[in-house]
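#struct-help
A.M.: can someone run this one for me? Single chain, 161 residues.
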Amino acid sequence: MAPIREAELRAEVRLWLTPRATAGTCLVEEFAVDRGSARIDVALIGSQFEAFEIKSDFDTFARLATQIHAFNRVFDRLWVITGPIHSESALRVVPRWWGVLVGRRRMDGDVQLEEVRPATENPAKDALSLAMLLWRDEAVKLIADNGLGPVAKRATRFELG
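D.P.: on it. Structure tokens below:
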């Protein structure tokens, strides 16, 4: 069977997310975190902040350790999606609370996702990292709306966090 490409896994993730993407949720691709130093492939933003990192059969895990650190600080639930070549490595490398989805090629050539391990609640979120996702104006409004004190006119997002 042919190796599974990133585009095939991405398309399957979108299909897998269709029932979860209800009113009030937003699917965002290439969502930047950690001041833009890391990008998650797909984020589902709603009452939960869920993220999906894709590692095709052609990818390596070279950057994954750094990505895990950045992603763990902001997302409620995380998943890694791999082809069969990286499935065992994914189970060993990502934290136990990350979910693992494996794309497998069917006899007709199409790819189908199999849930190997469900994602559970992230125990490692960081409030400052979450706050840094806000635009400055959004942070100022939240501070004002919650009576958290005056805001210096030139305060940076970091200072507001």
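A.M.: thanks! The first strand starts at residue 26 and ends at 33.
D.P.: also worth noting: The mean pLDDT is 84.
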